[in-house]
Fold each of these.
Amino acid sequence: MEDKIIMGNSIDNWIEKHPELSHIMQYNPVYWQNNQVMKISAIKNDLPLQLSDVIDAEKRWERFASIIKSLFPEMENRQGIIESELIEIDKMKVALEKDYNLMLSGKLFLKLDSHLPIAGSIKARGGFYEVLKHAETLAIEHRLLSIEEDYAKLANEEMKQFYSQYGLSVGSTGNLGLSIGIIGTALGFQVTIHMSADAKEWKKQLLRDKGAKVIEYTSDYSQAVTEGRKQALADPKTYFIDDEQSIDLFLGYSVAAVRLKKQLKEQQIEVNEDHPLYVYIPCGVGGAPGGICFGLKMVFGDVAHCIFAEPTHSPSMLMGLLTGLHHNLHISDFGLDNITEADGLAVGSASKFVGKMMEKLLDGVFTVDDDDLFRLLALLNKTENIKVEPSAAAGFMGPFQLLKNNALQENNTVHVIWATGGALVPDAIMQDFLKKGESLNNK
Ligand SMILES: *Cc1c(COP(=O)(O)O)cnc(C)c1O
């Protein structure tokens, strides 16, 4: 391995330049503080997207509300708005303080994207948005819809017939596939999901039950995406949702920031220079956390701080940022195996544009052991009676990682842990997760 050359440098050279790499390559949990982060005013004009893009996406979500209600009757009492709760988790805070033997000042909140309606994960934001936007575009192009009309008509039989001539396709470790499969088949599209080896059996089954075609790969996520993209390109009537480079997914996620601002206001939680906002989000390819981070920076400005969490075995965003290689790096180049129970985060190469965009926006990245994911999900269940999947538990260590590294200045910080998935996990599997976590906690 010593002789391997990655973008002109040997691995030894890379380690010499970035000594943290040696810890990362040994799967040690690390906290990496980004010292390139800059004031938003200084970099805004260089960003490829702006606040207006977030607002535009939010308006589109509003147009989608009536079709969402028509497709999913359970959305009637939510007015067709796909959104999750923001709750304060005092009991979990006490348990974490005890666990880490550190006192955390400020307030600790949980953003429950783990329980987003219909898709049960953060992918309801990006995946639903892109599929609905594509459905909107097709209908408008064929003069079957204008944006002033009630979008409920997109759910009628005629439209279903229309959409059934078209294909949707995506490469996924699981949850993105679920979200695309659920909404895509509901609209009438022919949906093909290219699943990586880490994808859980129950997710594949659920998709087949919905009428989606599931293609399984023995390789990792990057390969599933590459294959899916290739096959979709060969068919002009198939639209490929490209998790490695989709602007639409990214903007779908970004709207979470607008919603969070509203929720904080409703709960009379101040966010300003004296009350900074720190948000901790699990990161896979980067689209979801990147979109949310971008949205937060646009909506709150410099008082918002974003920190990503990755498994010690899949730190692709971290390694991409650290080396500046971004998507040109696959963690296997450095000998990492990309094996983790956090299937939503099992990604070896970061998104083609998110890493670059995060260079000056992101405060830092930390990595988490798989065992800690289980410990934390069990602790959350015990203290707050909330169930999340392993990927979704990655954020909880965040505030304590920052404390340990003297990276928190304010006492009045508003900490938001982003829980990203779990509501659709079958009971028996959730019980296994909990049992595993409890036994680790009792050690
Ligand atoms: C997809 C996913 C993430 C991360 O999103 P990316 O866009 O892949 O970075 C985090 N948690 C869960 C549960 C997910 O499914």
Amino acid sequence: MNRTQQLRSLPAVDEVLRSAPVESLLQHHPQPLLAGWARDAIDHCRQQILKDALADEADDATLLTLVVEHVQRLQEIDAGQSIQPVINATGVVLHTNLGRAPLPQRAIERMSAATKYSNVELDLVSGRRSKRGHRVCQLLSQLSGAEDALVVNNCAAATILVLQTICSGKEVIVSRGQLVEIGGGFRLPDVFRSAGVVLREVGTTNRTYLRDYEEAINEDTGAIIRVHRSNFHLSGFVTEPTIDEMVGAKRPDGLPVIDDLGSGAIEDMSHLGLPEPTVPDSVRSGADLTLFSGDKLFGGPQAGIVVGRRHWIEQLRKSPMMRALRADKTTLAALEATAEIHLSGHAFEEIPILKMLSTESDVVKQHCETVQRAIAGTCECEVVSSESQVGGGSIPGTVVDSFAVKIHGKNVDGLARLLRHESPAVQARVNDDCLLLNLLTVPEEDLGSMTTALCHALARWNNDPEEPHA
Ligand SMILES: *Cc1c(COP(=O)(O)O)cnc(C)c1O
């Protein structure tokens, strides 16, 4: 067939939808989605014809097959975008692309229970309307030692809410060494600007003294802020005042000190070699407001938590912005459960990320050896020591000792792709000519399903060593 004949022979959408492979997809996909893919696939095929990319022999049946295959490809892309569980074999504990903190079981149950009608703004004893998130705020106050607490959608929202509500139109003093970009293009100077606050930078990148803050204070000052450097590490000739010292700065009565901690450790983690400022320490030092994320070292759902002095928190609560930033009922439920675990003293057993960070590396090594035995006959592999990162903008410059299963081969990118196509999907790391599965971040209960997925992917890889990896 020539080009004109081929263009005329392209199948219609209906015909594509009636073909057996596409019809079987109808069971699990809404018809309009499939019809859209069919139209896109026909268009794709039309472009191929116009580019003379198809052979003259391509007849009606070939054209239909090409279109159907393209529909299947589009379906595969769509499936890979649908949110689903992923086994995190990267060793990065708080992996931003994988949703940061996996929730504790108790939080999952409470979150799920709250998805139906739930008493998010109803006091079941009095029958009256209650303050949204009242109980979780009480728990967070108790946990941090603060007078009051407030929950919004994430810590970025908390930062904006605080700056806009209590410093709008005023100057906020910050050390040059703390003007960070925290990822996803979220740059502090831009945040200050969007909150209507004038940034007053003091000190230098590596050295800021207490007197720099004190000298910058004037009648336009709205607050002094400390921003915890959460995703990079300054070392060498570095000085900056501690939060205690900042609280002790000579400042007018009522000028607040804000501590943007970000990562929000509750328990001291220095025994794990992970020095990180804690929320209770920040409150104890006298910071007026302390901000942190719910899904970093707190180990709960995505949320922004503000704890501190009652009169400031009251102002935040009354802000019109609050209505736009408030957390949903499932988040509040999960946060309640997570806060209870911290309060009960079982954080290192029940909160997945804290459990991982405190796992003995020998245990990780044993898990690696078990996996290695299961795949030994099918590929070239070994157990190697490896370093894990906390990630997610927490504890930069610090690594946790762990172990990984290392698989060698020509086309390890192809194997990584096959692993991502498994169910559950497995995310590994590729380094040069090897694939690494770091098991610090794979909980024991997932080892079985990960091994099954790995065996399946390896079998396919061995069958087709040229497996594409795009
Ligand atoms: C991570 C972080 C934030 C942002 O927190 P999200 O919960 O991701 O919005 C803000 N400030 C600091 C210091 C952080 O580390």
